[in-house]
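Teaching note: in complex prediction, the entire set of molecules is handled at once rather than each chain in isolation. The prompt given to students was simply: 'Predict the structure of this complex.' The entities are:
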Amino acid sequence: DAGVTQSPTHLIKTRGQHVTLRCSPISGHKSVSWYQQVLGQGPQFIFQYYEKEERGRGNFPDRFSARQFPNYSSELNVNALLLGDSALYLCASSLQGQGQQPQHFGDGTRLSIL
Amino acid sequence: GQNIDQPTEMTATEGAIVQINCTYQTSGFNGLFWYQQHAGEAPTFLSYNVLDGLEEKGRFSSFLSRSKGYSYLLLKELQMKDSASYLCAVRLSGGSYIPTFGRGTSLIVHP
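The expected output is the structure of the full assembly:
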C-alpha cells in the first residue's frame, strides 16, 4: 500500500510569491496534519483537518491556509512568501483526528525561498 | 506554554546501549510519542506511551513517568543505521490531540 505522498519534493520560490503544497494520505486515513520543520528543529504544527473540517491550527500567520478535499487529500497554501518560510513541510495522516493512532508522515516538500 | 526538552546530540558506539531522555512541562497530557527521523527523510513512528512504565519493542524500549514529566527511549545493540534524529512528542489533552514535538536528539553511532 502507498504511504503518505507529497508533491512536489522540492520547490524554489522568491519572496512575495505564493506556493501550494499537496498531500495524499494513506488509503482509509481521514485526518491530515501539516507541519513545518526548520533544520535542526522538531516539526511545528500548522494545521489539522479531519473529515474536511479544520480541527486545529498552530501559531502561524494568516498567510498560511489549508483545505481538505472529499477524497481526504489536502493542500497547504502559503501567500506572500518570506525568507523565513524556507523549511521542510511535512504532511502526516492518521485514521482519525484523535485517539492513540500514530501519525504517518510523508517525505515532505523542501521549500527554499530566495 | 509547552516545554519539551531533549539533549541536542549524543554519540555512542556500535553494539552499545544508549538512553535518550525527554522531559516535558505541558498544560495537559494525553500520551507521548517517539519518532525516528533519518536525515532528509520523514519521521517514522517508534512508540507511544500513555501509561507509566516500560514498553519494549525489539531493540527499542520506551519508558514514561507522568508524575515526573519524564520519558526515555532506550536503544540496545546499536547499529550504524540507528544514527538519526529521535523526536519526542507530547500529545496534549483538551480536544486537539495534536502532538507537540521537541527539537529532537541527533544520535551518532560510530564503529
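Point out the following to students. Chain B has a mean pLDDT of 92. Chain B is about 0% helix and 55% strand.
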